[in-house]
Amino acid sequence: MDMSTAEGWGAAIYLWIIPMVLGDAVFPPVPSEMAVITGGALAAEGTVNPWLVGLVAASASWLGDIVVFQLFKRRLSHVLDRWRWGRRVHRGIHEAIAKAGRSSTYGAIIGARFIPGGRLATSAAAGIADVSARGFSLCAALGGMLWAVWQTGLGYFAGSTTKLPFWASSLIGVGAGLVIGIVVGVIVTRRRGNRSPVDEPLDIPPEP
Question: VTT domain: which residues (predicted)?
Fold first, then answer.
């Protein structure tokens, strides 16, 4: 299997998208955008179905958001503190909330995922703020679909217009998405504080 060619990837891209998008829900550095954009670039070459790429990405996004939301809604975040990696994740969640703000409005749940760390921040903040589970679920589903369409579209557009190899098209798509996300993130975070404004105390045991 030659992974340097579009034919070599085939349906394997779906198996990459699922864990990466799920992982991104609790650890933003996971390159979920790159996985979905690559799926779009592969779709432009006709090796995968763009609609299925979007559906898989949206479903994984929704599931990851629900996990984070329920974790904080049920006040189970202390479970993370049992492990070293969990304490890092817990601390990172509060840092993400501090940067992206605590807004738990439905609009923020849908739109904040387009800025770095925004998906994690709004899911955790909505759980802490005791937002309706049904309302959050619907907004997370809608936001996940819009995000998946955007990321898949970036890869598909780059692939179909540049006619470059799929990996080059995916890099172009990632670059464009990153620049847009950073610009939006800077605009949003300048209007917010730099301290985690959630009500949950940040009593995280230090790492040994």
Answer: 30-156
Does residue 78 lie within any of the structural domains? yes
C-alpha dihedral over 90, 93, 94, 100, to 10 degrees? 180
User: Which pTM value belongs to this model?
Assistant: 0.76
Residue 199 lies in a domain: no
Within a domain: residue 198? no
- Computed on alpha carbons and rounded to an integer, the radius of gyration of the chain in Å comes to 17
- Domain of 108 in residue numbering reads as 6-189
Tens of pLDDT, residue by residue, the chain (208 residues): 445 555 556 678 888 999 999 988 887 778 888 889 988 888 888 888 999 999 999 999 999 999 989 888 887 666 666 767 667 666 766 666 665 555 457 777 887 788 777 788 788 888 877 888 898 999 999 999 999 999 999 889 888 888 778 778 778 878 777 777 666 655 555 554 444 434 444 454 555 5
Residue 156 CA: distances (Å) to CA of 95, 121, 152, 170, 205: 33, 28, 6, 9, 45
